[in-house]
Design brief:
Blueprint: H1 3-7, H2 10-17, E1 30-36, E2 41-50, E3 53-62, H3 65-78, H4 83-98, H5 120-138, E4 144-145
Parallel strand pairs: 1-4
Antiparallel strand pairs: 1-2, 2-3
This protein binds zinc ion.
């Protein structure tokens, strides 16, 4: 089975073709840029945080199917969640794609990325948007690089 067939499931392709929450936020708390030089993925994540709640989130960028679908699914999953819950989900997602989290971790739609742990170079594609999201939360103004 090829890497493409293994990883590119229908839901992933759907998010790649029709990304959710893509664009800019008119009102935002902070944003961060991320770059994965290994694959060429670039992503910019904008967040609006109010009273500890992630009221809005959007992303922009150009990347491969996995990085784009991951960014799209991430915004869909995180929008409206408490910031602490979003951070916790990021840690569990990292565990999933690096193979540390057990497969029955109940991560919902994010489980489509569980096969990524078999392809170390793809882990960077799948986590780029999340790392950039965390940087936006931390508001450190630095460009995230997967290297
Ligand atoms: Zn990529």
């Amino acid at each position: 089975m090829s890497e493409i067939e293994d990883l590119y499931q229908e839901l992933l392709l759907d998010h790649y073709r029709r990304p959710r929450n893509r664009g800019d936020l008119k009102v935002l708390s902070s944003h961060a840029d991320g770059h994965n030089p290994l694959c060429g993925d670039r992503v910019s994540v904008s967040v609006l945080v109010e009273n500890g709640i992630l009221k809005d989130i959007a992303f922009q960028g150009i990347g491969c199917a996995i990085s784009t679908a991951s960014a799209s699914l991430m915004t869909e999953m995180l929008k409206g969640k408490p910031v602490e819950e979003a951070r916790a989900l990021f840690k569990r997602f990292l565990g999933l794609v690096t193979g540390d989290e057990s497969p029955d971790a109940d991560l919902g739609k994010l489980e489509i990325f569980s096969g990524v742990c078999n392809y170390p170079s793809r882990v960077k594609c799948a986590t780029l948007a999340w790392r950039t999201f965390e940087a936006a939360l931390n508001n450190n103004g630095q460009t995230v690089t997967s290297e």
